[in-house]
Amino acid sequence: MVAAHEHFSHNLSRLSFAVSFYETLLKCGGLEEALDCAVMLIRKHIHQASAAVFWVDSTGFDVHLAKSPDLGQVEKAHFQSWFSRQMVQQIGQTNRISSLEDMLQMGLMAPPSAIRTLSAAAVPLGRLGQGVGFILVYRAAERPLLAEELSRIAAIAPGLRETILSFKPDIAKSPQTAS
């Protein structure tokens, strides 16, 4: 009985987060505003975590970071040098959340000093093999990300994918790279 109640509670939490997320997205008038809202909601609902949204385009990839309370410890330039377009697309095409270890196997180029201090996971923004990008969720390694927290992020990924495509329809037409 206790396990069933806990399972129900997790499902309710995920649903509540998704509803709040979609209500907020409906109020956004542009891509930057929508991405800021998405990152801020993730920070609000995933304790002590931050997020970045990656997406591919015809010339490479881009990363969105909202203003961060981490005092600039993680910057856009860091992420741009740690990931490649092929890797962003590969993560976006997976049908599962990628752990930090998975990303290292795919070619993540982060320095060991940074990897030791982070707990991170990538939630794909793909559908039917088309990788639009992903949401990178991260926080201090002392507080590893939990499966329940990542399932909440996975619940909003389809809506964020559609939001990105509505403001950047050319992403859907960008050439696919071989994995």
Describe this entry's structure for a reader.
This protein has 179 residues and is of the alpha+beta class. It has one domain (2-173): Beta-Lactamase (2-Layer Sandwich), CATH 3.30.450.40. Helices cover 51% and strands 20% of the residues. It has eight helices and five strands. The chain has helices at residues 2-26, 31-45, 76-82, 85-93, 100-106, 112-115, 147-167, 170-173, and strands spanning 50-57, 60-64, 98-99, 118-127, 130-140. It has a five-stranded antiparallel beta sheet, sandwiched between helices. β4 and β5 form a beta hairpin. α1 (2-26) packs antiparallel against α2, α1 (2-26) packs parallel to α7 and α2 (31-45) runs antiparallel to α7 (147-167). It is globular, with a radius of gyration of 16 Å. The termini are far apart. The model has no long low-confidence stretch (mean pLDDT 83).
